[in-house]
Please model this.
Amino acid sequence: MPARPDATNPDRQPANGAMPTRAELRAMGQLAMPVIVVQVGIMLMGVVDTIMVGRVSAEALASVAIGNLYFFVLSMFGLGTLLALDPIVSQAVGADDERGIARALQRGLVLSVFLSLLVGTALLSAEPALHLARQPVEIIPDAAAYARICIPGLPAFFAFGVFRQSLQAMRRMRPIVITIIAANLVNVFFNWVLIFGHLGSPALGAIGSAWASTVSRWLAVAAIIVTAWPILRPYLRPLRGDSVAIRPLGRMLRLGTPVGLQQLLESAAFGAIGLLMGTFGTIQVAAHQVAINLASLTFMVPLAVGAAAAVMVGHAIGAGDALAARRAAGAALLWGAGFMCLSAMIFLVAPRALARLYTTDPQVLALAALLIPIAGVFQVADGLQAVSAGVLRGAGDTRTPLIVILLGFWLVGTPVSLFLAFRTPAGPAGLWWGLVAGLGSVAVLLLVRVRSKLRRPLSRVMMDDEQHVPAL
Model:
């Protein structure tokens, strides 16, 4: 449960209003740390796939890059929609509303089935979509097969997201951390078996990594149910009839769909850069995959801090403490910006050493070492926009980030990428400088919105036909 305001504890009383104290910074760090482990663990599954497939060939690396990209761009819509659970569950926890937690969790599972069918249907079109996007002909069959093989794992992928968001909002992170560690070990094992053909398996290359991911996702959802059952049981049993009520599910979709579209547009913007990189050739795709993997890995930290911010801001709103919500937002922004400043320095100082972790191909290595410092330039902006979106989500504001992503990435970043890549000598690097422009504009606009939103009255998000909690 969230900590309530404590008039007897001077360390919790800010001297200057909404500025976070050391205790609040520490509390944010304590919640964010296991979330970071989980986020990095999820990302590591893709990183390990890339590293292991990269030992096969540059073509196999590019196939996994494009296939995984197509899968995640589409699946991010589903995962983003399920992030509606952040404000619903965290605010219910802050208000000590056990019934509200149960309803949200069960409705999340209902939505996960619907989203699996929706995204799975879209993944079937991978091959014609990749031809339409003018990807290298030699990698399309394996890339499309990778995306199709991921379809059976979608129900587990989304169900795990529901359990994870709900447990995270309850600040019960231990089962998630244990599950992610186990899932990574299983993924490495099955990659070793299926990619390289050990223990009697044929060497499947890129296709093997897709099967490894699908199996790992099902084992992960089974593991989290088992490890977290004492926590989840009161919310899963008995099954509630109102969990399938159309109106509350519709409201949940209306709250979550802007987040899903935001995630889709953001992923699609990065995905578009990957597809455009494919027009330059296989070496460029492989180098892009190396650099984007590194940038995505560091991004998991501010993304986790943003998730922790959504929880703490939601708890404060549910508990009726507007000042605590503002201080939680400040603490999260300081954590996110601080870490990304550190990672930016590493990217700028040691790009070639980082690239060698992924590949020994001299051409891929040279281009990746050129792209990694550009990723270093946008690190801080990327961190601030991720944390700001989490703060707004905890407050129930899911529409503003969607509008900002549309403006920043698609009306600023993408045109800059196209101009620099195809109208100047910058070439592949120009695509990445467009990301710098897009992320910078998104960060500024979201920071302005956070400041404006938290200065206004805040009220709890409700899905059912009940009286709303008064504004704070």
In short: The chain is about 80% helix and 0% strand. The CA atoms of residues 34 and 61 lie 30 Å apart.
